Write a sequence for this structure.
């Protein structure tokens, strides 16, 4: 018996703590990893929720999956309403084709992402301009899973841009806006071999309107003059109020006879306006338009307008410029 006891005590005793330590380390690592994943998830949720830009996850059919509060604020819809609809329903009809064309290129792998300026129709019916950026998220097998859409509200930026380039009284272009638009028109006219004509209008008798009727009536008169010019021109023509009672109209792709008729029609409309005003108009046409000649064109049309003033006002004078 004593031999057996001796044998039992003689068996080696495994006192190596390594397996237990490894298991504890693995548990600690797993716990730390889970804690870090939790923190990362909370950071993502906080970023998504508090981001100053609109963020949405969009299904491949265009329906919204998730939207953040800023997306709701910009679009004017609550999250529940958006999730029941798709981007197609809130996109302005005139912008939908371009958006879908870019989306098709994204789906085909031709683009890693795309950006565009487009309009949303808000829940109250108003239209808002946004900058949209879209990217695709793919699964582990590289199959399309959903889109990430980011939007920025361009309302303030566009309003500031509009105010910088437009006259607040008539909503026509101001001098700076005219210079920008006119140069582009002259470049296009030069590239296509088309003539360009410039009309310089100075009102007759406007000072007396302000003196006798007050500035409120004078301001209303100027706004009406802007409307008259719009009604006699076409989309693409460049119309501006230089300041005071001076206006410019740049026209391209018109025969000289058609431009002369337009100038006379404007003169007749001004003479029929009433309250003692009329218009002296100077007209210049060039068959070799060049944006570098814009100031020269204005000076020529201005000289022709002054000739009309000296000749008795309420008439059109044509300057020679070839």
């Amino acid at each position: 018996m004593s031999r057996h006891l001796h044998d039992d005590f003689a068996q080696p005793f495994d006192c190596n703590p390594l397996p237990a330590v490894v298991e504890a380390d693995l548990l600690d690592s797993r716990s730390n990893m889970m804690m870090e994943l939790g923190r990362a998830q909370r950071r993502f949720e906080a970023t998504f929720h508090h981001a100053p830009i609109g963020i949405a996850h969009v299904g491949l059919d265009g329906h919204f999956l998730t939207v953040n509060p800023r997306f709701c604020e910009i679009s004017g819809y609550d999250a529940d309403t958006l999730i029941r609809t798709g981007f197609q329903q809130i996109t302005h009809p005139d912008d939908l084709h371009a958006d879908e064309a870019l989306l098709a290129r994204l789906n085909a792998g031709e683009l890693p992402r795309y950006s565009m300026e487009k309009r949303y129709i808000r829940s109250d019916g108003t239209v808002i301009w946004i900058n949209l950026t879209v990217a695709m998220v793919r699964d582990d097998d590289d199959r399309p899973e959903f889109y990430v859409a980011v939007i920025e509200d361009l309302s303030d930026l566009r309003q500031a841009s509009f105010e910088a380039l437009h006259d607040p009284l008539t909503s026509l272009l101001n001098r700076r806006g005219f210079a920008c638009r006119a140069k582009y028109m002259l470049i296009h006219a030069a590239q296509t071999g088309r003539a360009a004509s410039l009309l310089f209008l100075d009102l007759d008798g406007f000072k007396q309107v302000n003196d006798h009727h007050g500035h409120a009536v004078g301001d209303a008169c100027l706004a009406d003059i802007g409307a008259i010019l719009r009604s006699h021109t076409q989309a693409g023509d460049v119309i501006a109020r230089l300041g005071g009672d001076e206006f410019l109209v740049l026209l391209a792709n018109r025969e000289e006879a058609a431009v002369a008729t337009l100038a006379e029609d404007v003169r007749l409309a001004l003479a029929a306006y009433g309250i003692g005003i009329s218009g002296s108009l100077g007209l210049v046409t060039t068959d070799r338009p060049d944006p570098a000649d814009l100031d020269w064109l204005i000076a020529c049309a201005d000289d022709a307008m002054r000739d009309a003033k000296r000749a008795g006002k309420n008439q059109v004078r044509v300057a020679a410029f070839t």
